[in-house]
Amino acid sequence: MSASALLSVQGVRVDFPGRRGAPVARAVDGVDLDIRRGEIVALVGESGCGKTTLARALLGLVEPTAGRVVFDGRPLRYSGRSLKAYRRRVQLVLQDPSGSLNPRHTVYDAVAEGLRVHGHGGDERAAVAEALSRAGLRPPERFFLRHPHELSGGQRQRVVIAGALVLEPELLVADEPVASLDASVRGEILALLLRLRAELGLSALVVTHDLGLAWNIADRVAVMYLGRIVETGAVERVLTAPRHPYTQALLSVLPEAPGEPVILAGEPPDPSRVPSGCRFHARCHILAGGEADRAGVSQACRGRDPEILDGSGAAQVACHWAHAVTG
């Protein structure tokens, strides 16, 4: 764990037992990831790659099968008291505000809920008003008695963010925070997250399948495939000069991407049947097109698992071909 890291995921593995004797599904398969104070990290990948399970592990909602989560220098403990204290400092922002807000609760009660759970001893009304104001709902008193159905989608997402901010956390974990919003509102919510980082020094992990979102909000990106991070580094470096074939394929389908999109063969493999060698090799256009063979690494791609990337944030890639052609 680097000295400046607020949160460090160290060798985390999360297994889920199969039903009726089926093989164990390894949703997260050895991940190191640091998040520094004041840093926004985007965790990107296709649905089913393990990114939400990893987010749940670092929130303490899933206990890792192996490895550990370290926050502010201390390993996360899974007792009720320890988790309650931890979750005051690390807050979740869900992708669907309609699903995460109780339709019977007023905005005031929705935001105050965290204060009541954690036994806030101060002025509740002032804390709720400040959180709503920070989330861009002003004047806050105008929203106190409204219900979720009376708000727009963007306003509901701001209420969810206010509910996280009211506890004055140090880290936000945002799972697809703008996926359910109209394009016109997405930019406003992303701008809000950036402003909160600037004003409050918040760190954030943004879980998304959208590389365009990562480009607009993140300092650093970690690309995940089949339970493991396969490329990481500063967002500008990874998204302008991707080295892993999987990252290249994800970027190629963006509307502004040059050239033809890379169409990946098949679906992501079953996490209970991780392929030998590089876990991406069965879908890899570099291997299928003969480029890995010309670089002399095709056998390694099929038979040798690349090393796990460390969590330092330096530019790294888990790809035999990328190392062969770029050194």
TrEMBL record:
Biological process per Gene Ontology, one example term: transmembrane transport
Name one molecular function that GO assigns to this entry.
Answer: ATP binding
SUPFAM superfamilies per the UniProt record, alphabetical = P-loop containing nucleoside triphosphate hydrolases
Q: Where is the ABC transporter domain?
A: 12-251
Pfam families tied to this protein: ABC_tran (PF00005), oligo_HPY (PF08352)
* Keywords, sorted A to Z: ATP-binding, Nucleotide-binding, Transport
List the SMART domains: AAA (SM00382)
- Top-rank taxon, per record: Bacteria
Gene3D superfamilies the record matches: P-loop containing nucleotide triphosphate hydrolases
Family affiliation: Belongs to the ABC transporter superfamily.
**NCBIfam families in the cross-refs:** oligo_HPY
- Protein name, UniProt field: ABC transporter, ATP-binding component
Organism of this sequence = Streptomyces griseoflavus Tu4000
